[in-house]
Design a protein that fits this description.
By secondary structure, the chain is an all-alpha fold. It is 87% helix and 0% strand. The protein has helices at 5-26, 28-40, 42-61, 66-85, 88-100, 104-126. The model has no long low-confidence stretch (mean pLDDT 95).
Length: 127
């Protein structure tokens, strides 16, 4: 069976999600070690994720609309929110720590710009 680019992304994501869930369930420190290793070169991770996101976005737009893409992002955000809600106090403390430093916009301007562009685009299609 020949997979599309989108199906390859979903295949990789699904396998990684299952591995993550099993690893966190049985060896949480092992998972933390892996994550720490990934975040040691956070700029490389950022660029790799940006490139992969751009590739996936391009291929998704060939199959579905921006509104459908944003609906998928809303679903992901809600599921992520559920996870963060389980650690509400820690999430608030983490948010306060991030906001204390005055570099928030310097560090996340590109993702914020992408979110803004996607949101405006979806609104322009819906309205």
């Amino acid at each position: 069976m020949a997979f599309t680019v989108v199906e390859w992304f979903v295949l990789a994501f699904s396998i990684l999600a299952i591995v993550k869930i099993l690893t966190v369930s049985f060896n949480p420190k092992g998972w933390l070690n892996l994550v720490e290793g990934l975040y040691k070169s956070s700029m490389l991770l950022f660029v790799a994720e940006l490139v992969l996101a751009a590739i996936l976005f391009y291929h998704l737009l060939r199959e579905i609309t921006i509104v459908q893409i944003l609906a998928g992002l809303v679903l992901g955000a809600l599921l992520t929110g559920m996870t963060f809600a389980a650690y509400g106090r820690e999430t608030i403390d983490w948010g306060k720590k991030i906001l204390k430093g005055k570099t928030l916009l310097n560090r996340v301007w590109l993702p914020l710009l992408v979110w803004l562009a996607l949101s405006v685009w979806a609104l322009s299609v819906i309205l």
